[in-house]
Amino acid sequence: MKIARYERRPSRTARLKKAAGRLLAGVGLLAAAFGGWYCLTPAPEGFPILEYHMVKDQVPADEYEYAVPVAEFEAQLDYLQAEGYQTITLLDYMKAKKGKFTMPKKPIILTFDDGYDDNYTNLLPLLEQRGMKAVVFMVTNEVGRPGYLTWTQLRDMEQRGIELGSHTANHQPLTTLEPQMREDEVKLSKLLMEWNGLKTIFSFSYPNGAYDGEMPGLLKGNEYLAAVTGEAGLNNMKTDPYLLHRINIPHPHLGLWEFKMRLLKGEVLAKLGWNKHEI
Ligand SMILES: [Zn+2]
């Protein structure tokens, strides 16, 4: 009978509960499978390079995503040290490839794009307190403008253990530019930094992470040794030095847990072997 059939039908709430139960069981199974896979596969051979912009508490809304508050950044540095990570520079890594530098057991490279003035006022003292190093990529036409580093600050940072690299002259995505303009961005930014009393510039960061097959050759031809992308993963001695992986660290919404998850993302991608820039 029709009515009896309807009476036997579980209520909407009961059906929802059952569906939710199944979903939870499914998620649980997946998590267990992932945990098993993650523990059983050997640790990936490689080290992370982190991508930051600002270390600052008060920023306008349009810069919010790029700024890690000071206390959160300190917690991240302390976590890295507690986990046994030791900071190196890109130049250290390039030297290690030639047998002229011994990599620490757990290396990590901290990078900062654009060249904001808080890298001098906030970041530098926090690194010095912990004996840590970093790489700062400067947009050279911004030097000395409000909110950006000055030449004096850049020279001082270099003396205090920061490696400086180029983030081009005007921060245009290079893939959108004509070949001559591209070359100018790569070449002139490097020369300008060297003419202003900085050491030879060997490292490069692609604006907006945009690159194509021409870029490694162009950088090599202009005497750069290494370049970082915005693509997550870990790096090892086989990684293309002009396509190094970086893990982005934006403004955290879930504290240190989010930071740990971002580090884990790099490891998982390396384990899966996705999009590995190896040569
Ligand atoms: Zn940038």
Structure description:
The chain contains 9 helices and 10 strands. The protein is α/β, with parallel strands linked by helices. Strand 8 (203-205), helix 8 (215-221) and strand 9 (226-228) form a beta-alpha-beta unit. Helix 3 runs parallel beside helix 5. It is globular. Residues 1-7 have low confidence and may be disordered. Bound molecules: zinc ion (ZN).
Keywords:
six-stranded parallel beta sheet, 10 strands, TIM Barrel, globular, 43% helix, binds zinc ion, 2 domains, 279 residues, two-stranded parallel ribbon, 9 helices, alpha/beta
Q: From the alpha-carbon coordinates, what is the Rg to the nearest angstrom?
A: 23 Å
Uncertain residue segments: 1-7
- Number of helix segments? 9
Report the major sheet: 6 strands, parallel
The strand count comes to 10
CATH superfamily of the largest domain: Glycoside hydrolase/deacetylase
Assigned CATH architecture of the largest domain: Alpha-Beta Barrel
Small molecules bound in the structure, each named once: zinc ion
Oligomer class: single chain
Q: Assign an overall shape.
A: globular
Q: Could you name the CATH class of the largest domain?
A: Alpha Beta
